[in-house]
From TrEMBL:
Transmembrane feature ranges: none
Active site (catalytic residues): 239
Residues binding substrate, per UniProt: 79-80
GO term, biological process aspect, one: xylulose catabolic process
Native organism taxonomy: Bacteria, Pseudomonadati, Pseudomonadota, Gammaproteobacteria, Enterobacterales
Domain Carbohydrate kinase FGGY N-terminal: residue ranges: 4-246
Protein name: Xylulose kinase
UniProt organism field: Yersinia similis
Ligase recorded as keyword: no
């Protein structure tokens, strides 16, 4: 049996997925790893955790299908992370991740140097959002000068895995878009902006189209990952972009949502449309003749993970001490309830969570409110609410944030007549129904939707070696397996909840700023 391998370096773990040349899922495996938050608003990971996670996930997937012929590997990963390497390609410090908020001042500096927001949009068609790689580079330059002086290469997470697999230093157009230093209209580095900011162009890797072969598995990579030497490795894509493709969204008018750690609303564009106020992100698509419009809310599934880890550890209603990552004893998963158990409590609460709303801004926010000072909040909490109501409010809050972003896309002609959903949230019938109710349209999942970006990476690998003649053909192979329709009985309730939700951030913005400047945080 011939197969394609997709590897996704996520925030909480790595997934390896094997699909056949018909697009059907053959086998998958995952390996988890921790996130480090050494200070408020910081988020880091040791890149070696990704390598070990990929090694374990690939071994697990291949063990489930030991007789197949592996044709090509596609890579995906969390976007915007800064992996800093020295001249010997050794990691200089823990990677600074996409949801890290430390470089707010540096992003403002870059914007000023570019000539304000207008100049920045002229250079890249995007804001320099907090979390983008460009701001992290400047942060290192200003705060870790000794390490910065030794840095010779900057990579994003999946591209570090590429380096370890193939020995090649490279990225592709979708992840390059997320650095904030890339002109998405020309699909090239924004050289004038890079020079103005004072970043050495040599730090940035060569850029491939996503569906081009970027290298082959080396002898070292083969020994480390158990993948045959010489196996071609495609350019791949950043997770937020490639999972849209993996959901079969390539035609204008369709929306794609992802409820993973972040909440993502995305659509394909035929042209790199102007991004007037920069609140949306317009990136290069993994299809060479397409672009990608999206908004990213920094917490969706991440808010659920926080709630579970804070209030459910040790079982439903039971507390326990969580061992550290390297401690012996029961694993974290063994002492915490599954998401299915928690969602069952949420399902007992009615739509609207009996008047309880949740703002999911636990790590600041990116879209539709680019505000690193934003904070999470429960609004409407009373003594009558139970834990099921609170869980439901957390779940609905992530969906309200997605719908909030859609208001920015409508002027671009993205009407959202149907939503295709992916990521971990796509496995939850309740979360799918919430999306149908709050968006007010049908919500579909495709066969690989729950596999997220790894499925899209495998599809890209197939296009790279000619299994499919083009991206549209590959996207067309995505089979629809579930459909949720809006519940008309709850339409008025969820519409009112969404209306009130949209008023909350403007009312609380000043309070969030005060909290960020306060001394009791």
């Amino acid at each position: 049996m011939q197969a394609l391998l997709g590897i996704d370096i996520g925030t909480s773990g790595c997934k390896a997925l094997l699909i056949g040349i018909d697009g059907a899922v053959i086998a998958a495996d995952t390996a988890s790893y921790p996130l480090s938050q050494p200070q408020l608003g910081w988020a880091e990971q040791d890149p070696e955790l990704w390598v070990e996670g990929a090694r374990r996930a690939v071994a697990g997937a291949l063990a489930k299908a030991p007789t197949l012929e592996l044709l090509c590997v596609g890579l995906s990963g969390q976007m915007h992370g800064l992996v800093s390497l020295d001249v010997a390609h050794q990691v200089l410090r823990p990677a600074i991740l996409w949801n890290d908020q430390r470089n707010s001042a540096e992003c403002e500096q870059i914007t000023d140097v570019a000539g304000g927001l207008k100049g920045l949009l002229a250079a890249t068609n995007n804001r320099m959002l907090v979390g983008y790689t460009g701001g992290k580079i400047v942060w290192m330059q200003q705060h870790e000068a000794e390490l910065f002086s030794r840095m010779t290469t900057v990579l994003n997470p999946k591209d570090y895995l590429r380096l370890r697999l193939t020995g090649e230093v490279a990225t592709e157009v979708s992840d390059a878009s997320g650095t904030g230093l890339f002109d998405v209209r020309t699909r090239q580095w924004a050289s004038d902006l890079i020079d103005k900011v004072g970043i050495d162009r040599a730090l940035l890797p060569p850029v491939f189209e996503s569906q081009v072969i970027s290298g082959q598995v080396s002898a070292v990579g083969a020994e480390l990952f158990g993948i045959p030497k010489g196996t071609p490795v495609a350019g791949g894509g950043g997770d937020a972009v490639i999972q849209t493709f993996g959901s079969g969204v390539i035609a204008p008018g369709e929306l794609q949502t992802t409820i993973g750690t972040a909440g993502i609303l995305a659509a394909a564009l035929d042209t790199p449309q102007a991004n007037p106020d920069g609140r949306l992100q317009v990136f290069c698509n993994v299809a060479a003749d397409k672009w990608h419009c999206m908004g990213v809310s920094l917490n969706a599934g991440g808010a659920m993970s926080w709630f579970r880890d804070t209030f459910y550890v040790g079982g439903v209603g039971v507390s326990a001490t969580v061992p550290s990552f390297d401690q012996t004893g029961p694993s974290f998963d063994q002492i915490t309830p599954s998401f299915e158990q928690i969602v069952a409590e949420a399902a007992a609460s009615p739509a609207g969570a009996r008047g309880l709303l949740f703002l999911p801004y636990l790590n600041g926010e990116r879209c539709p409110h680019p505000d690193p000072a934003a904070r999470g909040a429960f609004i409407g909490l009373t003594a009558c609410h139970d834990r099921g109501d609170v869980v439901r409010a957390v779940m609905e809050g992530g969906v309200h944030a997605l719908v909030d972003m859609h208001t920015l896309m409508k002027p671009l002609g993205i009407d959202g007549r149907v939503v295709k959903t992916s990521g971990g949230g796509a496995r939850s019938p309740l979360w799918r129904q919430m999306q149908a109710d709050i968006f007010g349209c049908d919500v579909l999942t495709t066969e690989g939707a729950a596999e997220g970006a790894a499925f899209g990476a495998a599809l890209v690998a197939g296009v790279a070696i000619g299994v499919w003649p083009d991206a549209a053909s590959a996207a067309g192979s995505c089979r629809i397996i579930t459909r949720e329709q809006p519940d008309l009985a709850t339409a008025a309730v969820v519409a009112e909840a969404q209306r009130i939700y949209r008023t909350l951030y403007p009312l609380l913005r000043g309070t969030f700023a005060e909290l960020g400047d306060s001394t009791f945080m």
